[in-house]
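The records we work with from here on pair a chain with its fold. These numbers are not coordinates but entries in a learned vocabulary of local backbone shapes. To see the layout at work, look at the sequence and tokens printed below.

. . .
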Amino acid sequence: MLITNHKDFNKLAQIAPQMQVVRDFLIYWQQNPVDFKEKRLSEQVLVRLLNYETASFEERSWEAHKREIDLHVILEGEERIYLAGEEALVAGEYHREDDYYLLEGNSERFELLAADSKDKSSHDMMVLWLDEAHKTGVSHTSGAVKKFVFKILP
């Protein structure tokens, strides 16, 4: 599933080579699944394998990035990823070295990402553009999530 608009569709064309790197990695990993924390796939693509328990909305933090686009790929479990426009949140200090800043505020807009337990090659994915505020790992009941987060330089 990809929810997009004309503006974001044009952004996708700018990262087409990076998306090919992601695609090749996902195909390889499905055939050779191994645990790792972080791997550099190219100069412009880094992947992290995350395992964590979901938590309530209040226990999770808003964040956004200025240099790296996030691509979240859910492998096991499910989580809500909340989204908000910049106008709804107040940005905190930017941490340049780790490319993130936290935000404060509220939004009720979210997408549910879930792994397909029957089809292991089918994964929900979400692209989060630069400066797009997001709060991940949210659920009403605690549950385990395993996912890739690709950090993509445009």
About this structure: The first strand starts at residue 38 and ends at 42. The mean pLDDT is 92. The helical segments are 6-14, 16-31.
